[in-house]
Structure formats: C-alpha cells, structure tokens
Amino acid sequence: MVLDWQQSASVDGAPKELQHFSLDEVGRHAAADDCWIVVRGRVYDVTSYVEEHPGGLLILKNAGGDATAGFHGPQHPPRVFDVIDDFLIGDLTQ
C-alpha cells in the first residue's frame, strides 16, 4: 500500500481521505467477505454491498481487479453511478 493521500467529498460533504493502492493490493481483496473493485482507476470496497447486489454474486466476477467494463455494462441503471461513490476508498497507482 502506498501512503499517498488525497481528499474527496464524502456523502455528508466533508472531505474524506483517500489512499493509493497497487493492483496487487486490490487483488488481495477478491472474496465475498472482502471485495474490492477498480472502476476507471478508482478503488472501491464493495464488501458490504455484495449480498445486496441485484445481479447476485456476479459482482464477484471482477473482485480484486478492474471491473470498469462490467460496471459500465447495459445491465446497470444510471443510479449506479451515484451509489458507487459511497464505497470509494482510494485510487489505483500506476
């Protein structure tokens, strides 16, 4: 894990600290009980959403990796773009 911090607005408008993660670090979180995904270079901890996901366990298809293509698929309604920010924890390092 790279200890480089950024700030982003949280749900309540207060800044929240974001970390930078390598793809290897994200890859260590590839299970239903510990699920991180990458969408457009941003890292999301969606563990708490896995059981609520309308597509069931399909969310795990890209667990621990880049889920950009699947996330932007036709199966997702436009509101998914608003909901995903609730799970943002950081950015992917190069």
Automatic annotation (TrEMBL):
Residues 18-93 form the Cytochrome b5 heme-binding domain. It holds the Pfam family Cyt-b5. The keyword Heme applies. One of its GO terms (cellular component) is membrane. PANTHER family: CYTOCHROME B5, CYTOCHROME B5 TYPE B. Belongs to the cytochrome b5 family. This is Cytochrome b5 heme-binding domain-containing protein. The lineage of its organism: Eukaryota, Viridiplantae, Chlorophyta, core chlorophytes, Trebouxiophyceae.
